[in-house]
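agent: user wants the structure for Serine aminopeptidase S33 domain-containing protein from Aphanomyces astaci. delegating to structure tool.
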Amino acid sequence: MLAVRPSLSCSTSSPSSFSSTLLVDIGYRLPNAAKMYRHLECNILLVDYRGFGMSDGEPTERGLQLDAEGVVDYLHSRGASSVVDPSKLIVFGRSLGGAVAVYVASTRPTKVAGLIVENTFLSISAMVDQVMPWLSYVKPVVLRLDWSNEGRIPTLTHPILFVAGERDELVPHTHMQKLHALATKSIRRQWLPIPRGTHNDSWMRGGLDYFFALKRFIDSAVGESTPPSSDTANTSERHQEDGASIVSSDEADDGLDHSHIPNMLDQHSLLFQRPGKIHHDEM
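agent: tool returned. relaying tokens verbatim.
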């Protein structure tokens, strides 16, 4: 779904590719996307990969990689250029979507202006060590997925915003901290901790400051504003450059309960086999 805001001056100059990251219908992400659409003032493209939501196929690692590359290539095609400025594409990924975003930034480096990674992991291997440590010794035999963010992040030169829920119950907070530390070639890396943020609700726990931080990052990444300096501040948050924190106020959420959303990484079988399509009645 492409949401276009032609009446806003930045809508056609700052498109954001927002990757749906869960094995559920894309509708679960609509409340989040609606807030992004309102507060970020840019085009939002939501993507259901193969095997996700109503999309056909099986959600294999290579399949998701091809889908992500196809989305970025399409946004740079003649057909999309009348709606968005492809030179100002920001790729956003949460959880597994973060791994997909990192991958496509590494394979399409000149087609991506910036990267936002939220609550993602070092690698699938590292996640197995976390959620199923008893299988560590047989990983070489049974593990079929890689998604090595820790191997790709050090190669990226893009501006990168790392959004990390400090109470993530699925991906250890240290994974995001290590990814941030590994982004040594990024021309502008920023860190946005969400004090009460869990795996799925960091965007809610962060309140408006979450969206303001994303908007400032996007604007600076695509050249719409001057990058924040280390002493840029207002009453609720302080932005810093080169790996320092963007400290967000811990505002109350909007009352929505997202605890029922299934986590992609909770599907342990996905780590070891090629899953079939997940149907809505199985959720």
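agent: one observation worth passing along. The mean pLDDT is 76.
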